[in-house]
Amino acid sequence: MSSYEDRLVALRAQLARQRLDGFVVPLTDEHMSEYVGAYAQRLAWLTGFQGSAGSGVVLPQEAAIFVDGRYTLQVRDQVDGRHWQYVGVPQTSVAAWLGAHAPDGARIGYDPWLHTRKWVEDASAALAGKSATLVAVDTNPVDAVWPDKPAPSDARLVPHGDAFAGKSSAEKRAAMVDWLKAQGLDAVVLSALDSIAWTFNIRGQDVSRTPVALAFALLHADGTAELFVAPEKIDADVRAHLGNAVTIRDRKDFSAALADLSGKTVAVDPQRAVAAIFDAIDQAGGTIRAVRDPAVLPKAIKNATEIAGTKAAHSRDGAALCRFLHWLDAEAGKGGETEISASDRLEAYRQETGLLTDLSFDTISSSGPNGAVVHYKASEETNRPIESDTLYLVDSGGQYRDGTTDVTRTIAIGTPSAEMKRNFTLVLKGHIALATAQFPKGTRGGQLDILARQHLWAHGLDYAHGTGHGVGSFLSVHEGPQRIATYDGGDEPLAEGMIISNEPGYYKTGAYGIRIENLVLVEVRDVPGAEKPFLGFETLTLAPIDRHLVDVPIMSAAELDWLNDYHARVLAEIGPQLDRAEKAWLEQACAPIR
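RE: above sequence
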């Protein structure tokens, strides 16, 4: 089809054929994934929106697209405002908007394989005031009008050996069996792709930038397990790796397997499992226990092998990033470089490690005003030159078999303005406050968020995203349950072994963006005289923070000590991996500020 307007017209015609007055199009898949395969990019196909989170609603006379603060600018650049209203979340939910905008008596369709049961309940309640109803569809109407829709990936699974995982799949499954028995449960449904990858020590290539495979799983209290995956994705090595206790079944058989759970008490995660799974078990006569997927917390708490692996990955990745920053310092001032050429150069340095399997997300390479678009992705249409007297923000990461990285640096190209330096330093002060925090065991991420924002708030500034997200071990770069945020999930207690990002920022629309991101490891702190156990953070990321942007007079002595100590560590750990010219540059980039 020639345009996004044509696609919207086609979808409305299809809704009429299915006797629907509206339809909800979330950006997710059957596993409630954040990052999805090409086959599940329905929102992007329909609207042109290229972000990683959002939803759309199509009614007969109006349509709306819902995004959070990370995408406020991006959605306006990519989605036609003549046809779509821009709605911010969490300020306005999809359910609340439907309750206000759906026609009286309307039939609003939804795909039960793309929504949680709670969402269905909330949307149904919101529609009740209009005497409107929510209707589960058997055929997704977007798929019906998407003529060249990609097929799901047929890439093969690969074993993730104990040398990387630190614990065998058999051990992990045995712990889950103990949990099932203790809870009086017969089975648990695993539908989140990263939980399945972690539990069975397998990885895949079915989602760009995230090494997971499209699969479902059932674990039973008798110690057996069923893995539902397309048969062409399995080879002899994977079968041998999984062992005799795991039965491999076709992914298409999963719904039928749920129907066989009659009389069973089954654990299902209400946040990570779609409504269709709950409906199938209910219809089969099974009893559902709505509890968190038992892989979520142990996956987030890294074992000693995973911690050693991520430290090795961060050292290797830090060297690649430092090579890039040396190149940028030498070349950016000459002119001729662009956001895309810089992004390509950074990826090339990572490839030269010989161990990169993929990037961990699409690199955010943003110059000048594009830096204010929080999750910006350069395209041929938006590609800006890297110009003098601007800020260049690069947020990037790599997937290595031993760990996943995610790092952001903001670089002054030429001479930064006094305002740029002040705002950068306010962000840096918040970053340091969080990096140096020590807190009682049981503290939640949301309780720490203000540490990163306090200096910005003091100047009437803020940023519209969370401060920290969990990171997997050769898994998703965005991993729960831990977060550092004032809303939407910042209530998980931080625990020893969790990896989380520290990434405050500031974004001036039309001018520049600033973000400083390191990954940190939650560790035990020995606090003299402490009356309870305390935790703190060990910084994992190793790359210099641009000294040219530091407004020294507003830094405290303690903050300068932290920065100097951090840079001394970067030089000591990364310097030996660089050639002579690169190391000489790093020595200057890490020189103490007095």
